Structures are given as C-alpha cells and as structure tokens.
Amino acid sequence: MGRSLDEDPLTLAIAPPSDETPEQRAAREVAEAEAKRISDEIDELIRKEREQIRRTKKPVKLLLLGQSESGKTATLKNFQLTYARKEWSEERAAWRAVIFLNLVRNVNVIMAHFTSEMSDMPYDPNDSSEELHIVPRAPRALARLKFTDEHRELRERLVPLASLQQSLEGKLGSASLELHSTSVSVAAPFDATTNGHSHPHTQHHSPHRRGMQEFSINSSNGWKSALDRLRAFRHTSGAALSSSSSSRNDMTDTEAIGSGFTPTRDRDPEEDIAELLAECREDIKKLWEDNTIREVLNRRKVRLEDAPGFFINDADRIASREYQPTDDDVIRARLRTLGVQEYKFIFDHGRTMGQEWRLYDVGGTRSSRGAWYPYFDDVDAIIFLAPISPFDEKLAEDKRVNRLEDSYLLWRSVCSCKLLSRTQIILFLNKCDLLQAKLQRGVRIRDSVPSFGDRKNDLQTATKYFQQHFKEISRASSPVQRPFYVHLTSVIDTRSTAVTLGAVEESILREHLRRADLM
Ligand SMILES: Nc1nc2c(ncn2[C@@H]2O[C@H](COP(=O)(O)OP(=O)(O)OP(=O)(O)O)[C@@H](O)[C@H]2O)c(=O)[nH]1
Ligand SMILES: [Mg+2]
User: Which of 65, 69, 176 for a ligand 1 pocket mutation test, highest count of atoms within 8 Å of Cβ?
Assistant: First the structure.
C-alpha cells in the first residue's frame, strides 16, 4: 500500500502552517511565484548557454582574401602564433629552408643586376628572372660604374648560389616560385558568378570537388605541402638532390657540381645548404654593403627592402650552420600560396579557447581568384588584406596593373558579391610600415594617385585618404549596407597584430554566435 501524500516528510516540511491567515497566504504565494520566476530564468540561461556551447562546436570559419603578397599568409601565421602556440613551435624549424631560399634569392637578384651592369647588358624589365617590381633604368646617360677585380672575384665566389636557389625551388615545389604572368586580365574572375551567372573558372569548383592542381592544393595544414616536400628531400640524403621531379628547376648532381654546389652524400642536405651559406656569409655581406653595387640597385630602382622575403640585412645571423628561425623570421618568410588551403586550429588561448577555427588562405594572383567563389558560401567572416604601400607598384603577374588599383577593384567585387551580402568583412589596410618608410623617402603619392592632390604626404593623411576610399567603395557597392570594420596593420609586427587579432576574434565570434542563432 502506498503512503498518503499527507505523510510525505518533504510535503509536510514545506506545507503552510495550519494557522496561516489569508494575508499570510497571499504573501507566501507571491514569494513562491517570484522564486519560481527566478528559478525558471536560471534554467533558461543554463539551457541557452548549453545550446550556445553546443552550437559553437561548429568551427568558426574565416576566409582571408586579397591580392598576391598582400599579407594573407602572414596574417594566418599570426593567428597560429597567437592562438595555437604548440603547433607554431613545432613548425618553426621547418621554415629554415624557406628562409634560406629567401636569402639566397635576395643575393641572386643583386647578382643578376650587378652582372648585367658589369657586362653593360641592357636592362630588360620583362626578363622572367626578375622577381621584383623594377622599373627600367632612366634614359638619361649616367657615367659607367667602375668595377674592380675584387668585384669580379666576389661574383665568382657567389655564383654557386644560383644553383642552390634552383635546387631549393625544385625541392619546395611551385609555391616557392613567384608568378610573373597570367592569362587572366580581370581583377575578380569570380565576378560573373556573383551576378548570378555561372563562370568558367568556378563552374566546377566546390570545396569537395576541385580538380586543377594549381587551384586546389588543400590539406589540413596547407604550407606543409611545400615543407613536406622539403622534409622528404632531407630524409633521402644528399642523393635526393639529383632526383627527378616535376619541377623545371631540378638539377642533377653533375649540374650542381658543375655550377659549384656539391652536396655531401650521407648527410642532411639542409646542413649542406647551411654550410655553403655560412661559407658565403662574408661575401654576401660584402655584396650588400658595397657602394658600387648599391649604386647599381639605385640606378635600376631595385628596392629589395620592400620585396617579400627580405632577409639579406640579417645575413650575418641566417647564413650560419647554427641558424634557427625566430618567430619574426617565420612571419616574414615568403612562400606563395597555391589554390585554397584550409588550416584547422583548436585555439589554445583567447576567449575562444578550445574552439575550432578553420582559416582559408587563398592564392591571391589574378589567375588564382577564380577558385575563391565556392568558399564564399559558408564563412562567418572575411579578412580582406589591402596593402597600401604599393600605391606606385605594379602587379607581378601583370605589369600593366597598379597594385592599389587592383585592390580597389577586388574590394569592390567582394563588397558587391550577393552571396557575401550578410557576411562580416574586416578590412586590413596592410603594410603601413612600408608605406611610412616610402613616404619618409620622399615618394609622393599624388605622382601615382592623382586624386590624392595636394594633401599632406604623410602617413596619417595617406591612411585616412585610402581608408575613406575603401569605405566609399563598400558603401556604394554593398547590396545591403554593412558596417565598415577597418584596421591599419603591419602584420609582420607580431605584437601589434596580436592586439588587432584580439579585437577581430571577439567581433568574429559575436558574428558566429549570431549566425548560429539564426540557423
Ligand atoms: N614589411 C611588411 N611586410 C609584410 C607585411 N605583410 C606581409 N609582409 C610580407 O610580404 C610578403 C608576402 O606576404 P604573404 O603573406 O606571403 O602574402 P599573401 O597575401 O599570402 O600572398 P599569396 O600567397 O601570393 O597570395 C611576406 O614576405 C610577408 O612577410 C607588412 O605589413 N609589412
Ligand atoms: Mg599566401
């Protein structure tokens, strides 16, 4: 037989006193109702929080867009450095070979100009070996530079670095080669698709169905595709230097020996490279510090300092057997992005600790942009990188196009894209450090950007002007008005970038939760 409710101890304990007056009863019922309301509110908060946590299990997706060399990969590296430090530390050493290649390239660019000036060869700006944004020598006649025997000997001693560059490029694959021309002459080849028509470049691309290798290298950690090649190269000993590969830059051992770079067998080839560089260290410094050679570069308007992967100033530190990359070196190392690469990070710092983020880093050359469109569909936010220092430079892949103009066109296409009309877009006006240096050297903006007019040629005025221009484009071209988020950045400055990323993280997360609520 069951117990009567009247006998339940709890019921008895909380039962109203038998002598309760009607007033006391009314007051008790009000208090009970209030307690229930508070309790329900707490239950609802807990439910929402749980729901939010459940939803945020969905990765936060962030797409990085911008022209080539705008700093997308450098921004991605800053994310990793700030929020996924363990992975960052594990990968740091793998960048050593890329930095060696960057340094060797700096040397070889100087060597190419120095050699052609020494042999009085006419300068050909279309020469495919040119990697920098160089303008032809001014037509006025300048006195011929005087080269000494010491210059000739220096040149002889540094010749092996040409084959070293080829070998490193061959082993790192096409990511290590810059693109010098492209058949695509429009800024946003995805544009036709954005207007509702299919486009030949994007028709068959989807994140799950991508074919062409140039457009689609996709791994859980993209730059590893290049670095893995290098690891394979290291682990197959010196003999790997002669292995055949798809790269046009592979050389045979015979070629390597003939041109002065002789790999030592049975040893990690990266150590051979470090050793060769260490042997060349004093000559590299001499080359960079020589007044006549500096004059060659000045006359040809070659500014290595503004170019990606500038390391020759650090030759003393890098050209060494013991060299290990620092965080800053890795951020500054240049390796071109091929296709669209997906990076997954579980953040181990910050407000979103434990949260998975997926960052999509794209190749920014005009011929790569057709592959972006499939990724517009499902991202929480876009960071658009627009470098503002190259207002007087041309695209590497199309020497007729001004870089700033290209960024404006691309920005307009992204802002006007219907698929992105409700996507948060954060603009980074990047390379402010290089802009400042350029303005300090006396380069006038109005000579390249006539609409800048007689404004003050200083950093503050320039950034305000460029910012306003991007804002107007956004306002005029966005299908639905959107807030204009902008940051002035120099993403090689890891400290200030960490602060910027903190603000970005919060704003993207808010957007992520808002989108989750809408679903
Ligand atoms: N001085 C300076 N260099 C920068 C800045 N941002 C990027 N760089 C350097 O510029 C070079 C190109 O940057 P990346 O991040 O590789 O450019 P990207 O946009 O990924 O280029 P693609 O992969 O070709 O599309 C690298 O060597 C960077 O270290 C900056 O704000 N200041
Ligand atoms: Mg990149």
Answer: 69
